[in-house]
Design a protein that fits this description.
Layout: E1 3-5, H1 12-21, E2 25-27, H2 29-47, H3 72-83, E3 87-90, H4 93-107, H5 116-128, E4 130-132, E5 135-137, H6 146-156, E6 161-164, E7 167-170, H7 171-177, H8 189-194, H9 198-228, H10 238-242, H11 247-260, H12 278-281, H13 283-304, E8 313-315, E9 320-322, H14 330-358, H15 360-363, H16 380-396, H17 418-448, H18 457-467, H19 480-497
Parallel strand pairs: 1-2
Antiparallel strand pairs: 3-5, 4-6, 6-7, 8-9
Helix pairs in contact: 1-4, 3-6, 4-5, 4-9, 9-11, 9-13, 9-14, 9-17, 9-19, 11-13, 13-14, 14-16, 14-17, 16-17, 17-19
């Protein structure tokens, strides 16, 4: 089913369909009218020989340089080539798909002056599975994500490189492989393609989608740990959470009660102990706070992915072209820094539960969940790996948005570093997913020493799913494979079962 974009109503559910199920997109007919009107405004301004930033002038500090009419197209081609200076590992194809989708949606708003042919080619590239090779580093997150988006735009010109069905091709070969022709950019078009926040927002969207799924899995695996450690269920009593009144905390407590319903392994206060350690007792408070952050991030991303973020903007109703600063990524930079803090905390508390599972002084279970302690080390080093990942997250969680380095001869004297914040959030997500997978593996093994039949129905089902990918530990083996298999399953299960 085709998704029609109008620049105003793109949803996470639609994004997921495009990213994970290769749903095709088209521009809504009403949006085409605005796009064509916007382009007509640009053409009129050129004919009148007016001074318009980025159309008849240079860029950044060079905005005082006037460009003759016969060179305005060359200016746009030069812009793309000169700004394609990204470095580092390329962004994933999933993120690049999100970049194209978000850029198309922004251009569909009709404030950018793009030509119909150029925008249609961008749509065709996404539908045909042409994914430009976009280096991940080099954006300051103000004046837009210039370097990453320039690499994306290169392919429209038949330059740069693109991935097509796993094969790395030149931009021209990629277009020809799919029966498409490159375009020559006209006035304003280069700027319309690269002046925006679609790289950081794309990374943010992909990170948010996976983080939201990971939060759901983390709660479920925490319930396994809770049973394996005979947790005190009273801590999830609804009365406790109602009197604090955070909706997310109340929701997590309700989820935990549902996951644990029917369990014969949980206890009540006073049975074995009066209360549990914080990593068990405070699951609703901590995981609930993480959900609060996810809700904040979702709200900011939903605004950004339906916004016009380039410069200058064309207001055709008044025949005006106005320079501003919508390309500044500060809202997304803050959101990504907040997200990586929350994801780091998701891993922090999971690692503390892992420690409780493998530490015999805390668990009452065999040391390191080994069937032959001493001769075998069991899951001793699983906790080490979780601790290493958690420690790395703490470094990555340092806010990128508090930094700013002036650029363009101090014309662009304050930048957001939003792309850096987004990239770090994505890495924290990957680290945290592995920590959560390690907790799942350890919790499943701990339940081997309990009576599985005494688990709640939900836990039995979850245990069986884990066992499809990770067998019980009957003797020391290479556990790296187990962690990677379960991590890969979590990513696959996210795609199939995501709640948006």
């Amino acid at each position: 089913m085709t998704i029609y974009l109008d620049g105003h109503h793109l949803t996470f559910k639609q994004i997921k369909k495009v990213l994970d199920y290769e749903e095709e997109i088209e521009i809504h007919k009403e949006a085409w009218k605005r796009i064509e009107t916007s382009r007509q405004t640009i053409e009129k301004l050129i004919q009148e020989d007016l001074v318009v930033y980025g159309v008849t002038t240079g860029f950044g500090k060079l905005s005082d340089v006037i460009i003759p009419q016969n060179q305005v197209e060359q200016l746009q081609m030069n812009l793309i080539r000169s700004h394609a200076v990204g470095v580092g590992k390329p962004l994933s194809e999933r993120i690049v798909r999100a970049m194209i989708l978000l850029r198309v949606n922004a251009l569909a708003k009709g404030y950018s002056g793009i030509c119909k042919e150029t925008l249609q080619l961008l749509v065709d590239c996404l539908n045909a599975g042409i994914h430009p090779v976009v280096p991940s580093q080099g954006s300051l997150g103000a004046s837009g994500d210039l370097a990453p988006l320039a690499h994306l735009a290169l392919v429209l010109m038949g330059e740069g490189e693109a991935m097509v069905k796993g094969e790395r091709l030149t931009g021209l070969d990629a277009l020809e492989r799919k029966g498409l022709n490159p375009i020559r950019l006209k006035a304003k078009e280069g700027l319309a393609l690269i002046n925006g926040t679609q790289a950081m927002t794309a990374v943010g969207v992909v990170t948010y989608l996976d983080a939201s799924d990971l939060a759901n899995w983390a709660e479920q695996f925490a319930s396994l740990t809770f049973e394996a450690l005979n947790g005190v269920i009273d801590a999830f009593d609804d009365q406790i959470h109602q009197v604090r009144a955070y909706p997310e905390q109340i929701e997590v407590a309700q989820n935990m009660r549902g996951y644990l319903e029917g369990s014969q392994l949980t206890t009540h206060q006073g049975d074995l102990r009066v209360q549990d350690a914080y990593s068990l007792r405070c699951i609703p408070q901590v995981h609930g706070a993480i959900r609060q952050v996810l809700n904040y991030v979702k709200e900011k991303l939903e605004i950004e992915m339906n916004s016009a973020t380039d410069n200058p903007l064309i207001f055709s109703d008044h025949g005006e072209v106005i320079s501003g600063g919508n390309f500044h990524g500060q809202p997304i930079a803050f959101a990504m820094d907040f997200l990586k803090i929350a994801l780091a905390e998701l891993a922090n508390i999971a690692e503390r539960r892992i420690e409780r599972l493998v530490n015999p002084q805390l668990s009452g279970l065999p040391p390191f969940l080994s069937v032959n302690p001493g001769l075998e080390s069991g899951f001793m080093i699983m906790q080490y790996v979780a601790a290493a990942l958690v420690s790395e997250n703490k470094t990555l969680a340092h806010p990128a948005s508090v930094d700013s380095i002036p650029s363009s001869a101090n014309q662009e004297d304050h930048v957001s570093m939003g792309m850096t914040a987004a990239r770090h959030a994505y890495q924290v997500l990957k680290n945290s997913r592995r920590v959560v997978a390690i907790e799942a593996i350890c919790a499943a093994q701990a339940l081997e020493f309990r009576e599985i039949e005494k688990c709640s129905p939900h836990s039995k089902s979850l245990y069986r799913q884990i066992r499809k990918w990770v067998p019980p530990l009957t003797g020391d083996r290479v556990l790296a494979n187990d962690v990677e298999r379960l991590t890969a399953w979590l990513k696959k299960a996210n795609k199939e079962n995501s709640k948006v």
